[in-house]
Amino acid sequence: MDIKDLLNPEESSGEAKKESPLKSLEGDLKFYNESLKEVAVEIMAEGISSYPIFVAHQHEVKLGEVILDKNDLNTEWSIHASTLEEFMEKGLILPEKQEKFLKQYKDAYHFMCVFVIVPEGANFVFFPYQ
C-alpha cells in the first residue's frame, strides 16, 4: 500500500470532504527522510533486524523507541523505531501472517516501512526515501 492510497478518503454521501491528517504525515516523512534512512540502515548494519519498521503516531504509543518527537521538533507526527521482531513479540504480526508481511515488505534501503496509527485504526505504508 502506498501512502497516497490513504490520503484521499472517500467522501461520505452529502458531507463535505475533510482533509486527511495523513497529508501532514507525508510532509513530516519528507522532513524526517534523512534521519529515518540513517536509523533504518543502522538497525540493519548492527544486525538488530533486517526489517526496520517506523511507527508514526500523534498520541502516546508504547511500541519501539522514540527517535523523533513531534513536541521537540514542532511537527505533527512522532516517530518510533521498531522491528518486525518486536511486532511479532507483541502479537501485532501473527506468526501465520509473517510470510505475507515479508512478501509485501519493500527494500529497506529505498523505502521506509511505516506503521501509521490514527484514531480509526492502523496500517502499514511504504514511503520512498527522497
Pick out its properties.
130 residues, alpha+beta, five-stranded mixed beta sheet, 5 strands, 35% helix, globular, disordered N terminus
Number of domains: 1
Percentage of residues in DSSP E strands: 15-25%
Can you write the helix and strand succession as a string? HHEEHEHHEE
Taking all residues together, what is the mean pLDDT? 87
Distance between the ends: 18 Å
Q: What is the radius of gyration?
A: 15 Å
Overall 3D shape: globular
What oligomeric state do the depicted chains represent? single chain
Assign the structural class, choosing from mainly alpha, mainly beta, alpha/beta, alpha+beta, or little secondary structure: alpha+beta
Sequence of strands across the biggest β-sheet: 2-3-1-4-5
Query: Largest sheet, if any?
Result: 5 strands, mixed
Q: Tell me the helix content.
A: 25-40%
Q: Count all strands and give the number.
A: 5
Region (Disordered): 1-21
Can you walk me through this structure?
- The chain has one domain (20-128).
- The protein is 35% helix and 25% strand.
- The chain contains five helices and five strands; from the N terminus they run ααββαβααββ.
- It has helices at residues 3-7, 22-45, 70-73, 84-89, 98-104, and strands at 52-57, 65-68, 78-83, 111-118, 121-128.
- It has a five-stranded mixed beta sheet with strand order 2-3-1-4-5.
- A hairpin with a 2-residue loop joins β4 and β5 (121-128).
- The model is unreliable at 1-16 (pLDDT under 50).
Entry summary:
This protein has helices spanning 3-7, 22-45, 70-73, 84-89, 98-104, and strands at 52-57, 65-68, 78-83, 111-118, 121-128. With 130 residues, the chain is an alpha+beta fold.
